[in-house]
Design a protein that fits this description.
This protein is of the alpha+beta class. The chain contains 22 helices and 34 strands.
Length: about 950
């Protein structure tokens, strides 16, 4: 072990180590606040050295050999210099600490709370004769073992013992000595090597009672001392150079010490802040809160982290914010001596945090707006969705006004350019009260039409398409208002006003930008809803124009119908129905549904309805009508029409780029004479029949393929209807919705037809009220017919042999029947026309001839024969003797025509009944007009 050189000095010359110890003591006394960084507390100078001063004095000695003299006993050195070490009267340790080392028994705050100092004495023989409790802890050797040991042999390495012996001889010769000595603990009883250490030793010569030379040794743990020196330096550096405000507050809650950073913020020098309280720096309410927190920390010892404190600094009106950390500091004995205050200015950070929070709030508001605005295609609903988003998250009151002209369908309403056009208030929301504010403008009711004055900020906003700030009225509760134009596709559609009441933060630039974005998003949705409403209304007008006007009439049928379009949130569908009068007092009933929605479906429905009416006038069979409709439907989406569609059908499917139109349809032809009806179905729902006294049932009509698919023939089903029977044709919107499957809807529809004897209009209303027809998901078409066949006395039917005399008999039968029906004004015309038709049947037809007269709303005459050749009307030349018979029929009748029958053909004409308002054509004049 190497020895750190030490210098022997006289008693009046203190050693370097003593000076270092004095310097440490001085520094600790001068810097009491360093305890906050781990240094000693400012407890004042100690009145005694250590517990060792009171231990080891036995047998009535004065303790001079050990240095553990009673209080106030001087210790004399052999050099003749009296070194007096004042020692306070011993303090008894607590009972529970008996036998333990107590490092502090003097008044609190001594430096010996931090520096480990031990003492022992050396007798005249150079051996240890006194060993204090402090020495036991420092060296780890008990007094029983240490007394009688040679300290040089026990603690000094072998290669330095000779030097140590010489120093011991000098000490016993009366010289003082101080130095830093490396030492090694003696081996333990178990043989383990002792630990090594470094101690600063101060040896003071003395004499025993017998006058023999002895020595008292004061030992300081150098490692602890060096650590304290380092801690003091670090504490001073941290306290003085910290970029944060640092305070040490004593137990009276007064500033004991402040660093330069704190002084630079609040003015003055460091010493000028001593003795101040938090009331000297903060507003009263804030100071009371902070003082209460300081007392709580001092009492409980619980630290406070990131406590926010607000106040002002001298010379500035700006409110500052600090983040303060508080913790209680203690002396070496554990006694609370104050509170450490570490403050950081977070004003800029709070401003940045507010900006970030505002940005997050605005982003969340925009996300909410994107999720909630535009879920409906209704204008008023979209406006209310905007207000639901902004109130109260963005403002306290809000209104939305839309141009009345745009709502009515005008693209550019009058006054649009200067902002003075009429507007309609469509939405209003308030987070405070629905009552008008005192001093504010007159309230406008929702739904009311109004306009803004030309020079008002609102009119200016509409005119320039830029947001404007509306000045607040004096005495009102509104503090700030933004008038934001609602611009969509470079078109101003309305104005949104956002208001904040007094007590809220006024609108800033960030709020203005957010308001513009919210209004723009709502404007796009409102404009889309407006355009959709316009298209929906146009499609609905088109569709209604293609449906039968008024209440249709039919021979032998009582008709009632209903058409319910889908709601505004759904596009117009392709549902239609029709009632077509056919020759012979027959009626065609049609119900169809084009798959799809919108104008496309409405236009396709119009084309198919027109085609059905055209085909019906050709008097084709129901299956033939649907086959022709199928060809037409396949040609709707093909530029080249049916022929192109037929050729495209033979190509591979991937080469077919034409648009596909599909539709379902049921077509039925009812004969009022026979009360028989023939059905043909193209993928439509089955008809429902209710016979008198029976339950409703669905007719078993083969559904067939929808129109536009092609490739499959359609089947016909003929049903005889009893008098008073009820027939219902309908579309799927009546019996199907998202909440009700088709099977349930059909059963409900059949169950609703419980009383068919009621008036037909009441039956229709009952069905619509019973079923769930208000879902608005699809159009609904309902056609109901009650059978009322022609009476037997309204039909005249005769069979004529194929001979010339049959012409005369036919005229006679017609005259007799018309006279019986009190139709004498029609006798001459009817006889002439019957004669022409029967003559044509004899000349150009085959088989026997059948004559039939039918009386209903008109008089119909039919001539049947077995010939298949249809009569063709042509214009006879002036020199021709014949060929004018059909021309005469066309001149004298209201309508005429021919149709094929399963056994030949039928040629017919129709005469209006004489009701006083119809003028009949004179046969003579008609004959003269032919020449």
């Amino acid at each position: 072990m190497s020895e750190i050189p030490a210098k022997a000095t006289e008693s009046e010359d203190p050693s370097d180590g003593a000076r270092a110890e004095a310097a440490v003591d001085s520094a600790m006394a001068a810097a009491p606040g360093d305890a906050a960084a781990g240094g000693p507390s400012d407890g004042g100078p100690s009145d005694g050295v250590a517990d060792d001063a009171t231990s080891g004095a036995t047998d009535g000695t004065d303790g001079g050999a050990t240095g553990d003299a009673p209080a106030g006993t001087p210790v004399r050195a052999t050099s003749g210099t009296s070194v007096e070490v004042p020692v306070e009267a011993p303090v008894e340790p607590p009972a529970e600490a008996a036998g333990e080392v107590v490092w502090q028994s003097s008044p609190p705050g001594s430096m010996y709370d931090y520096i480990k100092v031990a003492s022992f004495s050396i007798g005249a023989d150079g051996l240890v004769d006194q060993w204090s409790l402090r020495a036991e802890q420092l060296f780890g050797i008990s007094a029983e073992r240490a007394v009688g040991m040679d300290p040089i042999e026990a603690f000094v390495a072998a290669d330095r013992r000779e030097f140590g012996q010489r120093k011991m001889a000098e000490i016993l010769d009366g010289r003082e000595w101080t130095g830093v000595v490396p030492f090694r603990m003696p081996p333990s009883d178990s043989g383990d090597e002792g630990a090594e250490g470094l101690a600063e030793v101060y040896v003071m010569p003395t004499t025993t009672e017998d006058g023999e030379r002895a020595a008292v040794c004061i030992v300081v743990d150098v490692r602890t001392l060096r650590r304290i020196e380092t801690d003091l330096a670090a504490s001073q550096a941290i306290f003085g150079q910290s970029p944060f405000g640092f305070l040490l507050i004593d137990t009276d809650l007064r500033v004991r010490r402040a660093n330069q950073r704190f002084a630079s913020v609040f003015g003055g020098d460091v010493d000028g802040h001593r003795g101040r309280t938090v009331h000297d720096y903060l507003p009263r309410s804030e100071a009371e809160r902070v003082a209460a927190t300081l007392r709580r920390v001092l009492e409980t010892g619980d630290s406070i982290t990131d406590m926010h404190v607000a106040g002002f600094v001298p010379g500035s009106e700006e409110r500052r914010h600090w983040s303060v950390n508080l913790y209680r500091v203690h002396s070496g004995s554990g006694r609370p001596i104050g509170i450490a205050w570490l403050g950081t200015d977070i004003t800029s950070r709070r401003a940045a945090a507010r900006e970030a929070a505002a940005a997050r709030r605005n982003l969340a508001l925009l996300n909410e707006a994107g999720a909630r605005i535009g879920n409906s295609l209704d204008l008023e609903t979209t406006a209310r969705e905007l207000l639901d988003v902004v109130v109260p998250g963005f403002c306290d009151l809000a209104t939305v006004d839309l141009y009345q002209g745009l709502l009515a369908g005008d693209e550019t309403p009058p006054g649009f350019a200067d902002g003075s056009a009429e507007l309609r208030r469509v939405a209003f929301a308030s987070a405070v009260s629905d009552a008008p504010f005192v001093g504010g403008p007159a309230p406008v009711a929702v739904g009311a039409v109004h306009h803004f004055p030309f020079n008002s900020p609102c009119a200016d906003a509409l005119r320039t398409a830029r947001p404007q700030h509306v000045p607040a009225e004096e005495g009102g509760l509104i503090q700030s208002t933004l008038a934001v134009p609602m611009v969509a596709h470079d078109t101003v559609v309305g104005l949104a006003q956002f208001s904040r009441t007094k007590g809220s933060e006024p609108f800033g630039d960030r709020d203005r930008s957010l308001a513009v974005e919210l209004a723009a998003r709502a404007a796009v949705c409102i404009d889309n809803a407006r355009l959709y409403r316009r298209e929906h209304e146009r499609a609905l007008i088109l569709q209604r124009s293609l449906l039968p006007p008024g209440d249709p009439e039919a021979s032998g049928l009582d008709i009632a119908c209903r058409y319910l379009p889908g709601n505004a949130a759904t596009e117009v569908g392709g549902d239609w129905f029709d009632v077509i009068e056919l020759p012979g007092h027959r009626t065609a009933l049609v119900v169809g549904d084009v798959m799809g929605r919108g104008l496309r479906a409405a236009v396709a429905m119009g084309e198919l309805r027109t085609a059905v009416r055209t085909l019906a006038l050709l008097d084709l069979e129901p299956a033939e009508v649907l086959s022709a409709l199928d060809e037409i439907a396949r040609g709707l989406g093909t530029p080249g029409g049916v022929q192109q569609a037929t050729r495209a059908a033979r190509q591979p499917r991937d080469a077919d780029l034409s648009e596909v139109y599909l539709a379902t349809c049921v077509y039925a032809v009812y004969d009022s004479v026979t009360r028989r009806i023939t059905f043909a179905n193209a993928g439509h729902l089955p008809p429902v029949l209710v016979e008198p006294g029976e339950s409703a049932l669905m007719l078993d009509v083969p559904p067939g393929m929808p129109l536009g698919v092609g490739g499959e023939p359609f089947e016909e089903v003929e049903v005889e209807l009893p008098e008073g029977a009820l027939l219902a044709l309908y579309t799927d919107g009546l019996v199907e919705s998202r909440d009700h499957p088709l099977d349930e809807g059909l059963q409900a529809f059949v169950g609703a037809l419980t009383d068919p004897s009621r008036p037909l209009e009441d039956v229709c209303d009952h069905v619509l009220n019973t079923l769930d027809t208000h879902h608005g998901e699809d159009d609904i078409a309902l056609l109901m017919a009650r059978v009322q066949g022609l009476p037997a006395d309204s039909v005249g039917d005769w069979t004529l042999p194929r001979e010339p005399r049959s012409v005369g008999r036919a005229r006679e039968y017609a005259r007799t029947q018309l006279t019986a029906w009190d139709l004498e004004p029609l006798v001459d015309t009817a006889e002439l026309l019957v004669s022409e038709l029967v003559t044509n049947a004899l000349r150009y037809g085959e088989g026997e001839i059948r004559l039939r007269l039918l009386l209903d709303r008109t008089l119909v005459c039919e001539v049947w024969d077995a010939g298949l050749v249809q009569p063709r009307r042509r214009r006879a030349r002036d020199t021709d003797e014949g060929g004018r018979g059909l021309q005469l029929v066309g001149l004298l009748s209201a309508a005429w025509g021919s149709r094929r029958t399963p056994r030949g053909k039928t040629v017919w004409f129709e005469l209006p009944l004489p009701d006083g308002g119809t003028t009949l054509t004179d046969p003579a004049e008609a004959l003269l007009s032919l020449f």
